Automatic annotation (TrEMBL):
This is HET-domain-containing protein. InterPro entries: HET. It holds the Pfam family HET. The lineage of its organism: Eukaryota, Fungi, Dikarya, Ascomycota, Pezizomycotina. Residues 28-116 form the Heterokaryon incompatibility domain. It comes from Hyaloscypha bicolor E.
Length: 161
């Protein structure tokens, strides 16, 4: 199994990269989502990367959401696949793909982030919102099946969190 890289939200709110010592992985949340434009990738989060560029990417919103939700759930660590699998390293990518099941299984909480669904307005017919929910892009992706059934606890969130 590949090692897992985690994001850590420090007490001052700063989000930093952490590679836990072997065999000593802290409790963590995990994000399930679909990829979009301007995702934060591994190279953006490496030590020494220009974070001013990273936080301006659209994908940073997912990371902020996950950090905030993990903190609300009493967790300091979380994992987001876009930024913690080095897709340029084929050996690492293969090992990560083979480890994904375990990473989702070992997560304390899985947050499904539906970036194409907004919270319903107070006047919105519930059936209209439910139909939009069912048509979310997340439900059309193959990877998301394991992300739905493997974790112990799964919660769904709209674009607004």
């Amino acid at each position: 199994m590949a090692f897992i890289r985690l994001l850590h939200r420090k007490s001052d709110g700063e989000i930093v990269f952490r590679k836990p010592p072997s065999g000593n992985v802290p409790a963590y949340a995990i994000l399930s989502h679909t990829w979009g434009d301007e995702e934060v990738i591994f190279q953006d989060m490496e030590a020494g990367a220009d974070m001013s560029q990273t936080v301006s990417k659209a994908g940073w919103r997912k990371i902020q959401f996950c950090a905030k939700q993990a903190t609300a759930d009493g967790l300091q660590y979380f994992w987001v696949n876009t930024c913690y699998i080095d897709k340029k390293n084929t050996v690492e990518l293969g090992a990560a793909i083979n480890s994904m099941f375990r990473w989702y299984q070992n997560a304390v909480h899985c947050y499904v982030y539906l970036s194409d669904i907004c919270k319903p307005n107070t006047g919105t017919d519930q059936r209209v919102w439910e139909e939009a929910f069912r048509k979310s892009r997340w439900f059309t992706r193959g990877w998301t099946l394991q992300e739905l059934i493997v974790p112990r606890l799964v919660d769904f969130f709209s674009l607004e969190g």
